[in-house]
Design a protein that fits this description.
CATH superfamily of one domain: Jelly Rolls
CATH architecture of one domain: Sandwich
Strand content: over 45%
Distance between the termini: 20 Å
Largest sheet: 6 strands, antiparallel
Number of strands: 9
Structural class: mainly beta
Strand order of the largest sheet: 1-2-3-9-4-7
Order of helices and strands: EEEEEEEEE
CATH class of one domain: Mainly Beta
Helix content: under 10%
Shape: globular
CATH topology of one domain: Jelly Rolls
């Protein structure tokens, strides 16, 4: 059994093309012996965003705090805010964007192999 507080998990900048002002925390994953899923927490600064991208695995998301948009493949901004859950299916083109004035913080659960 593992119990961990988010504020004890190291933070690292997300460094990839199309990313603006995002940090990541790997809260639980393969290194902890978690066999199937990893929990990552992303913090998107005001005005920040992920790349407009897709991937082969599903992502399950929960917004811890803040507000923003989950942009779809057609460029439509789908609002997300504290307490919202979002499912990104394999192959869905998407982007997380902070549209608020405070950090957008969300959990992203992915298959451990994708970690």
């Amino acid at each position: 059994m593992i119990i961990r507080k988010l504020d004890t998990v190291p933070t690292s900048p997300v460094d990839m093309d199309g990313v603006k002002d995002i940090t990541k925390q790997l809260v639980l994953g393969r290194a902890d012996g978690v066999p199937n899923f990893s929990f990552r927490v992303f913090t998107v600064a005001p005005g920040g965003h992920s790349p407009h991208h897709n991937h082969e695995t599903e992502h399950l998301n929960y917004v811890i705090s803040g507000k923003g948009a989950l942009v779809d493949g057609a460029g439509r901004l789908n609002p997300i805010a504290t307490g919202d859950f979002a499912f990104v299916a394999p192959g869905d083109v998407h982007q997380f964007r902070n549209t608020g004035e405070e950090p957008l913080v969300f959990i992203c659960a992915v298959p451990s192999a994708y970690e």
